[in-house]
Specification:
There is one protein chain. This protein is an alpha/beta fold. It is 31% helix and 14% strand. The protein folds into two domains: 185 residues, 3-Layer(aba) Sandwich (Rossmann fold), CATH 3.40.50; 146 residues, no CATH class. The chain has nine helices and ten strands. The two termini are 51 Å apart. Bound molecules: 2-acetamido-2-deoxy-beta-D-glucopyranose (4 copies). Belongs to the type-B carboxylesterase/lipase family.
């Protein structure tokens, strides 16, 4: 897992190997809202594919294809150039670059300077320049190709001083550097809009932050839970195509509902949550001595550990969403603004 310090930064230098490296396609793609079957989305996603023709010829022209997808979706091998390479006249490469917020959040600060995804594209071209001769390609004869967001990309790469000497020719299609998907007119405002959307969807993340503040303020009997129980036949969340507990789902589980059409599992969960609430209301402890419905549950520390998860099973876990919570800690540390007191008499 990547350290959070690398988020939003230019990519690190690529690794080097002393021995031949077995470069198997592991289907790694950058995080995006819908992950195709057979692919693995992970933050450490900067991989390139090289397509080499079945020839012993060397110094072949090189084509680097930059994928499209609105800078939000896609991956290097979303289209493949096997037929181009079968001509035996060129060698081709594709690469991933970071997408969406991870690729393009831009605060104009040292921590989040912006355009990480474009810097990934530059890093890909640098890698090709330094390595493609070993695959039979000519590092001084690179053509970059892109359509849609890839078209914007190649157009932008032509303008950047960072790409001097990295390619000679460009095939740009169906977008350009002034397209709506190419320019963030007000990146900090866009970041605010995104943050508002996250707050709306992710109350639990600022709850985690509050828990730390409460414990630090001396409230030591804070019981951290995650309620993630869902019925198997509940509706899928649009786009994410997963099932998840809705806003306030635990609250609804504890209170009255029409029992005539509830699953056995949900009825059982309702009784567990009621017991938890009742225990807590009586003793200040959700699992006092003699409680059998829920495993023993100690209060959380300031590092949000442990956490009782009410999912398809009920179990105590060491923590909850550690990476996302750390990201939010960082955002709070860097950008949190205290409310501005009103000016008297204004
Ligand atoms: C490449 O060279 C090797 C060794 O000379 C030879 O065995 C092989 O057939 C050649 N491959 C092609 C595709 O020409
Ligand atoms: C969901 O389905 C699995 C397997 O089909 C079953 O074991 C489980 O009890 C079901 N859970 C709920 C909440 O319906
Ligand atoms: C409970 O739900 C059933 C259908 O699932 C319905 O027929 C019934 O009228 C509901 N009862 C109440 C009190 O709303
Ligand atoms: C009861 O639940 C089933 C399956 O969960 C669903 O198909 C049906 O429409 C529900 N009936 C009512 C009256 O809500």
């Amino acid at each position: 897992m990547l350290s959070i310090l690398f988020f939003f930064q230019a990519p690190l230098a690529p690794p080097t190997w002393e021995e031949p490296y077995d470069a198997i396609d592991k289907g790694i793609i950058c995080p995006q809202f819908s992950v195709p079957a057979g692919k693995t989305a992970q933050e450490d996603c900067l991989v390139a594919s090289v397509y080499v023709p079945n020839t012993n010829a060397t110094n072949l022209p090189v084509m680097v294809i930059i994928h499209g997808g609105q800078f939000l979706v896609g991956y290097g091998d979303v289209t493949t150039p096997k037929q181009l390479v079968d001509s035996q006249k060129l060698i081709a490469a594709t690469c991933n670059y970071r997408l969406g917020i991870l690729g393009f959040l831009c605060m104009g600060t040292e921590d989040i300077p912006g355009n990480a995804g474009m810097k990934d594209q530059v890093a890909c071209l640098q890698w090709v320049k330094h390595n493609i001769a070993s695959f039979g390609g000519n590092p001084d004869d690179v053509t970059i190709v892109g359509c849609s967001a890839g078209g914007s990309s190649v157009d932008l790469l032509m303008l950047s001083k960072l790409t001097r000497g990295l390619f000679k020719k460009v095939i740009g299609m169906s977008s350009a550097n002034v397209g709506v998907t190419s320019v963030q007119l007000d990146p900090v405002e866009y970041a605010r809009i995104q943050a508002r959307r996250f707050n709306y969807d992710a109350a639990n993340l600022y709850m985690l932050r509050s828990l730390t503040l409460q414990v630090n303020a001396g409230n030591h009997k804070m019981y951290l839970h995650e309620y993630s129980f869902v019925d198997n036949d509940s509706a899928l969340i649009p786009y994410a195509n997963i099932r998840g507990a809705a806003h306030c789902a635990q609250g609804f589980a504890a209170v009255d509902q029409n029992y005539s059409n509830l699953s056995y599992q949900y009825k059982n969960m309702k009784s567990i949550i009621r017991e938890e609430w009742i225990n807590f209301a009586i003793t200040g402890n959700p699992t006092p001595e003699g409680c059998t419905a829920i495993p023993q549950w100690p209060p959380a520390n300031a590092y949000r550990s442990p956490c009782m998860v009410f999912g398809q099973t009920v179990e105590l876990k060491p923590t909850v969403m550690p990476l996302r919570a750390t990201l939010w800690d960082l955002i709070y540390a860097l950008f949190y603004r205290n409310p501005i007191p009103p000016t008297p008499g204004f």
